[in-house]
Amino acid sequence: MRILGLGGSHHDFCACLVQDGRVVSAVEEERLTRKKAAFGLGPRLQRCLAADYVLAEADASPGDVDLIVANDLLNRVYALRFKDRVTWIGHHLSHAASTFYTSPFERSAVLVMDGRGSEITRNGERFGETITFYTGDGSGLRVVRALHGRLGTAARRLDDTYEDSIGGMYEAVSKAIGFFTSGGMGAPGKTMGLAPYGTARYVKEVAELYHLDDGEFRQSTRQLNRLLALIAQELKRAGNAEAQDEVRADVAYAVQAATEHVVLELARWLHARTGARTLCLAGGVALNSVTNFKILQETPFEELHIVPAAGDHGTALGAALHATYGQGHGSWIPSPEAFSPYLGRLYTETEMRAALATHGDRLRVSRPDDLFVHVAEELAAGAVTGWFQGRSEIGPRALGNRSILADPRRPDMKDRINAKVKHREPFRPFAPVVLEERQGEFFTSEVPTPYMLLVPAVREEKQKVVPAVTHVDGSARLQTVTAELNPKLHGLLTAFDKVTGVPVLLNTSFNDNEEPIVETAQEAVRCFLSTGMDLLVLGDFVVRKAAAS
Hints:
Blueprint: E1 2-7, E2 14-19, E3 22-28, H1 29-33, H2 49-56, E4 67-71, E5 86-89, H3 91-100, E6 108-113, E7 119-122, E8 125-137, E9 140-150, H4 166-176, H5 188-194, H6 203-207, E10 211-213, E11 216-218, H7 221-238, H8 241-274, E12 278-282, H9 289-298, E13 303-306, H10 315-326, H11 349-358, E14 363-366, H12 371-380, E15 385-388, E16 402-406, H13 413-422, E17 431-435, H14 439-442, E18 479-481, H15 487-500, E19 504-509, H16 521-530, E20 535-538, E21 541-545
Parallel strand pairs: 1-4, 4-5, 6-12, 12-13, 15-20, 17-18
Antiparallel strand pairs: 1-2, 2-3, 6-8, 7-8, 8-9, 10-11, 14-21, 15-16, 16-19, 17-19, 20-21
Helix pairs in contact: 3-10, 4-7, 4-8, 7-8, 8-9, 11-16, 12-15
């Protein structure tokens, strides 16, 4: 039984293939088109390259697929080549399935929060999903409560905003303080990174511009517009650039505080309603890793699972898994092994050699006997290293197969990588990756976080040991690693620990600013040559730039 899932909305298009209940492959369209979030592709969208990619992993063609499933918020152009073969399901249902059916839980509460979901019409007005509560078990997913926000504008635009949307508010505020992607979408991740630099100056005013009661978040178009007007007024009043930056930081602090307050209350309501011990999260709001960790700290839920592709880039995975387990094509039994996010294709040594040969005169290539020790010593000596291994990971976070790695002990490393490699804002932090069995020595959490979706604190006595991955407030967006899930990254961390006594590395995505994460060996070499990286590890090959003549 082969099931092809297609996902996305008007951005973050993706495809996934599930065969006989096993996820064979999943990839985002952006990795193949090299256009961030696959946004604004126009007619090229109908190529649906991700579908061909995942089918190739099973040596299959579209004709070999038994079922094609997509969420109904997806731009229909993306599914055009499959015509009337597509079965459409709800957007939030695809999110819920993506996280529940990748969890280790037999039964769980599920919470989906994003900017906008599937549309419905009431009395001639358009509404969209904003927050949906579910329970999940072997019999499927069931809605506990669904909140729909009214469309706030009369025009049909890609950036239409719905009322009663916590994700919509966060993105609108991100845009208002100047955080956009190259395609013009909001960049909430930047807001989350800036928030710790701010103060509580606007917390009370933001809190007065929404209503929260008994598991319902409500915010009218008028309230959101008042919030945006407040931001514009404060930025104008600030005058000089330094004062404006302070306003932006304080606004980021306030919207982050509001989001935490809302999500925690929603989680408490869902726990009270279901009595569940475990919680699964999905939707764009579930990428707010600061809030995620506070759910574990401040609500009755004992365990938490968030799918690594929590945004729209995970809806293909969810569509295919819902068709497998929610529509009677398989029986849901959670796997004893952690869900692997490494679902891209495996590039061969021949392909790596070809990528290196393309730029042969600009590279020096070696193949050390002990790769891990050699690279660990280079990292300890200060080398910023591109790390290209195995199958690419799904989702927006580099999880050790398409990563840039560096020594976290160096106080200047964060500024160095931001300026010379990533070319991005200096306030944005970098994540630590740590051996799971050693995380408690450095961080105030023993909860495994293999997908970089929780933000605990760095232990006070260790903050000076790993300053490059310690944010301004002492926190860190942590990734933990096991030998079972990622043996090569585990091996490198073990070697770095032996060399330095620190089982932690700085980990950021293998790309330049506003680029998708690299997918192929050719792209890894190109990115290495066009940025200030010192070293590239391509499979077993260690690559340096040739000295200029």
